[in-house]
Amino acid sequence: MNTLFYVAVAMVAGLLMTRLTRLVKLPNVTAYLIAGVVIGPYVLKLMDADTVSSLSIITEAALGFIAFSIGDQFKKSTLVAIGKPALIITVLESAGAVVVTLAVTLLLGFDPVVCVMLAALSASTAPAATLLVVRQYKAAGPLTNMLLPVVAADDGTGLIAYSICVNVALGMINHNPFSVTNTILLPLLQIVLALAIGAGLGVLLALTHRFFRSHTNRMSFVIAMVFIALGIADRLSLSNLLMCMAMGASYVNLSNDAERVLGCIDDWTYPLFMLFFVLSGASLNVTIITKVGLIGVTYILTRFGGKFLGSWLGGTITHQPAVVKDNIGWALMPQAGVAIGMATMALQQLPLQYGQQIQTVVLAATLVYEIIGPLATKSALKRAGEIHAE
Description:
Layout: H1 3-21, H2 28-39, H3 49-54, H4 56-70, H5 76-107, H6 112-121, H7 127-136, H8 142-174, H9 180-207, H10 215-236, H11 240-254, H12 258-283, H13 289-317, H14 322-325, H15 328-331, H16 337-349, H17 352-383
Helix pairs in contact: 1-2, 1-12, 2-12, 2-17, 4-10, 4-11, 4-12, 5-6, 5-8, 5-13, 6-8, 6-17, 7-8, 7-17, 8-9, 8-16, 9-10, 9-11, 10-11, 10-12, 13-17, 16-17
């Protein structure tokens, strides 16, 4: 059967599952992930592992548009209003996850290399899941306004943490002396380069509005530019998430028509996001849960505990209202694409015995987080009184 048939199967499965999950008021994100697990190679086997892998271009495209859409949260007016508190909360919740995960895993006596890498992977969240929940329930208010910039930015802090920690881990494995250049400066240079190229593409995208007046043409150009950014990031081995996010941020600050164009893009990309989550569910091997053991449970608990503590502390320091500081930690629970991508990179960069253990832990944690996480996000938004559509 051809690729388009399997794309159709994934979409239909996702849509049908929402009819079932609606009965118990679960978010659509959770429905899509469950649908993927059910039709995937480890349950009903309607799609085998090779088929899921062959559709990876859909995952890459979806992540690009997710990052581009999150760039909308970096409008100058929004940053002026909440910029400093959002930055402080982002740094503290990311650092909280890293520090708590590293400290507890080391105290429990796990391999220091694995501890360092899991700590680095704990920083990122899943902006796609959060964004879809916010859109589904038309959430709006102080918590939502703070949440979206934080989940957008902490993938940046997560990538920074990973870039530094993987070099630390390699140094520990190879017994190499610590090098500031290789461990810190080169990873930071790659991050700055991704942001700079993305910002430049955003400027170019805004300039095209002088030549293309209709919304359909402008939307088409946005789609083309996201694909171009993904290609450049892949070619230069840079972060496609950071590049697309920077492009979106640059674009919304330079184009007066950006909001209307992004509205059109949102309608076009929703089926793409649905496919992303169904395929993510299909790629999750539910049989690995029994192999994770204590270190997997520890990672799940310490990552969430560190994020909750760090975000609460950041909210307290920046004098946020109770609806923000008491609920934002719950909404930071989801973790998926970025963490899975970094775990895959760890498998490629580290010796096999380390890479496999790290990937197994992260995939098992992702299965838990991506089913429970959207529910926690919805619950946090509901407690804050910011859900406006069921």
